[in-house]
Amino acid sequence: MKVKKQYAVIGLGRFGSSVATNLHKLGYEVLAIDSSEERVQEFSNEVTHVVQADTTDEETLTALGIRNFDVVVVAIGEDIQANILTTLQLKELGVPYIVTKAKNALHGKMLEKMGADRVVYPERDMGQRVAHNLVSSNIMDYIELSPNLGIVEVSIPRALIGKTLAETNLRAKFEINVVAIKRGEALIIPPLPSEKFKEDDILVVVGGIKGIQRLEDLS
User: Fold this and answer.
1) Of 120, 151, 185, which closes a domain?
2) Cis ω before 193 (30° cut-off from 0)
3) Rounded average pLDDT per 10-residue block, the chain, 219 residues
4) Helix, strand, coil proportions of the chain in percent (round to 5)?
5) How many CB atoms lie within 10 A of CB 213?
6) Is 183 among the domain residues?
7) Residues 160, 142 share a domain
8) Are strands 139-146 and 149-155 parallel, antiparallel or unpaired?
9) Residue 147: which domain range?
């Protein structure tokens, strides 16, 4: 059985808290870290574990076992010094994959030079998501993971209604994976191959941009 990745999110502002809670809803183990005791209390029931800590301190990060996490997201926003120092400490500790939030292009370049595997610009990325939503009537939400890879929420194409996930063979045809189905208030994670698609389903899909576009064309 394939072991699910473990995530840590540092910084529970608007961006960090959204990333942490959504990863948790998708069924992943999430450690959330913030320097504010108030924020830690606020999210105590929203993720797997939440702790108050100063992540600029190497000993603290080591004690938290941070190097055991597959992906660490540095979502510290206002305190650029803490953002940079935390990223540097994570790199020194050998964290496999580091995603860091940047405020601007210069900040982003510094983070890249320090070894961040991915630098994200939430304000800019939000603009991309809105643009994708505007040009497609089927896409409900869009997150770009890389220039060629994205996560989308897409309303069920009419051609798939009444078929099971196995029958649609989306992975082979479009190189995309359905990781969840939103059905009213219910969230089906992960959907079984025998799960039959219904008319008002919303699919949460991970895959290449071209494959996602081809899925849209089915409607």
Assistant:
1) 120
2) no
3) 78 90 87 94 92 94 95 91 95 94 90 91 64 50 66 88 94 91 89 94 88 79
4) 40, 30, 35
5) 13
6) yes
7) yes
8) antiparallel
9) 125-216
User: Helix/strand/coil (H, E, C) string of 63-121?
Assistant: HCCHHHCCEEEECCCCCHHHHHHHHHHHHHHCCCEEEEECCCHHHHHHHHHCCCCEEEC
Task: Output the pLDDT for position 130.
Answer: 47
Radius of gyration from C-alpha coordinates of the chain: 19
In this predicted structure, what is the pLDDT of residue 219? 61
**CB distance 107 to 123 below 8 Å:** no
Q: Cα(175)–Cα(153) distance, rounded to whole angstroms?
A: 16
d(CA 102, CA 99): 10
Residue 194 confidence (pLDDT) = 95
Q: How many domains does the chain have?
A: 2
Domain end, chosen from 120, 138, 156, is at: 120
Residue 129 is assigned to a structural domain of this protein = yes
Within this chain, do residues 97 and 150 fall inside the same structural domain, yes or no? no
Cα dihedral across residues 43, 125, 67, 13: positive or negative: negative
